[in-house]
Amino acid sequence: MSPPLAAGAAATSPALLVSIHDVSPLTLALSQRAVALAEEAGVARHHLTLLVIPRHEDAAPLDEHPATVAWLRGLSGEGATLVQHGCTHRMAGRSLGPRGLFWAHLFARGQGEFFNLPGDETARRIERGRAILRRAGLEAATSGFVPPAWLASPDAACVMERSGFTFLEWLEGLHHLGQRRAPRVIGLGSLNAVEAAATAAWAALQVHGRPADTRLAIHPADLTRPSSTRAVRRALQALLLGHRPLSYAAYLGIA
Ligand SMILES: [Zn+2]
User: Fold this and answer.
1) How far does residue 13's CA lie from ligand 1's centre (Å)?
2) CA of 4 to the centre of ligand 1 (A)
């Protein structure tokens, strides 16, 4: 049943930027459920942003998976924003300094592909991912870039800034034309029950804060745990009361 959503959200309301992370052939079914969940809560497809992994786990090239390609082309045709999300998503090697332990392993679960990469390898992976998206007929996904877990080494971040993307997304916000926008981000961790409960509580606190442009990050893993799915649904319903949903491209005025 649809909630009485968006009744209070006017054209001047702050934006709600809903993104589905980690979309790939490996997560197709869960990604489709995430889109359905957002739609049921009242976020139309053309207001969604999907973060697409070109070669997930270095094992699932998108251009060789017709079902995922067809689904993404359909969404793009309906107006959803597609964004390149790394190349493999997986971090090579290990990072065992204190900063590395926290960010790469606790926060990103070893999924910070660019966390410890030098500039040349970063450029190679960006190009490799782009080529896969183009071969898949998903050129639209190459105008923006989100590094997995929003992490990058300083050299990798420099390369991303110079790679011709119209916008980049970091944990701190969307970077576009020299501005940082929508710094508030809400996401859930679904790795285990304790983490899921803790992050759901944190998300609930942020959801009920003062309305401001807000990014809501939904991960396919959120759909594998009923409590996390409920938390995402509650967050969407609460945020839609005072925010108007927009895709990244529409929000940045590049749609
Ligand atoms: Zn990701």
Assistant:
1) 28
2) 31
Read off the pTM: 0.87
Per-residue pLDDT for 208 more than 90?
no
> What are the boundaries of each domain within the chain?
15-252
Which range, of 1-5, 11-15, 53-57, 96-100, averages the lowest pLDDT? 1-5
Averaged pLDDT for residues 133-154: 95
Decide if 244 contacts 214 (C-beta within 8 A).
no
Is 195 exposed, middle or buried, given 0-12, 13-18 or 19+ CB atoms closer than 10 A?
middle
CATH architecture designation of domain 15-252: Alpha-Beta Barrel (3.20)
Q: What is the whole-number distance in angstroms between the Cα of residue 52 and the centre of ligand 1?
A: 9
Ligand 1 ion: nearby residues, β-carbon < 5 Å: 21-22, 148
The rounded Å distance from CA 21 to ligand 1 centre is 5
Q: Measured between alpha carbons, how far is 77 from 71 in angstroms, rounded to an integer?
A: 10
Q: How far apart are the CA of 106 and the centre of ligand 1, in A?
A: 14
Distance 40 CA to ligand 1 centre (A): 23
Tokens representing residue 166 in the block: 């119209």
Task: Quickly state the pLDDT bin for 77 (edges 50, 70, 90).
Answer: very high
The answer to whether residue 117 scores a pLDDT higher than 80 is yes
Q: Which helix (H) or strand (E) holds 99?
A: helix 98-100
Strands 167-170 and 144-145: parallel
- The tally of CA atoms less than 13 A away on the side-chain side of residue 71 is 19
Interval between CA 149 and ligand 1 midpoint (Å): 5
